[in-house]
From TrEMBL:
SUPFAM superfamilies found in the cross-reference section: Rubredoxin-like
GO terms (BP aspect): mitochondrial electron transport, cytochrome c to oxygen
CDD domains with a match to the protein in the record: Cyt_c_Oxidase_Vb
Pfam families assigned: COX5B
Species of origin: Pleurodeles waltl
First-listed, main subcellular location of the protein, grouped into a coarse class: mitochondrion
PANTHER family from the UniProt entry: CYTOCHROME C OXIDASE SUBUNIT 5B, ISOFORM A-RELATED (PTHR10122:SF0), CYTOCHROME C OXIDASE SUBUNIT 5B, MITOCHONDRIAL (PTHR10122)
One MF term in the entry's GO annotations: metal ion binding
UniProt-annotated binding residues for Zn(2+): C89, C91, C111, C114
The protein's name in its UniProt record: Cytochrome c oxidase subunit 5B, mitochondrial
Keyword annotations: Acetylation, Membrane, Metal-binding, Mitochondrion, Mitochondrion inner membrane, Transit peptide, Zinc
GO cellular component: mitochondrial inner membrane; respiratory chain complex IV
Domain of life, source organism: Eukaryota
Subcellular location: Mitochondrion inner membrane
Amino acid sequence: MASRLLVRSALRALTRGPGTARVPLAARSMSAGGIPTDEEQATGLERKIMKALEKGKDPYSMLKPPQYAGTKEDPHIVPSINKKRIVGCICEEDNTSVIWFWLHEGEPQRCPSCGAHYKLVPHELPH
Ligand SMILES: [Zn+2]
């Protein structure tokens, strides 16, 4: 039944003469390339973020942070727009409590509980 309907509608479409009215294509159809991409239509802050992501930067820390060993040679990098930032350390994977402490700009500091190293790095927002 459905196949007969398909055949009939296909035949009707094929037998239409040039004088019959056609449905105009949408001006912004995908086949015409009319729908702008995110990159083409983004403005303002969204555009700045997209441009930064293209360059491999992550200005608003939207991506998963890189992993650090937490040793003196490879401290956890903590970006901050201020001279100090409060940091929460989950010292061991299964801990249910978080150790909070202030991290200041300059030399790497250690977590008072587990001794992992943290280093504050200046960070500038793109706007
Ligand atoms: Zn810790």
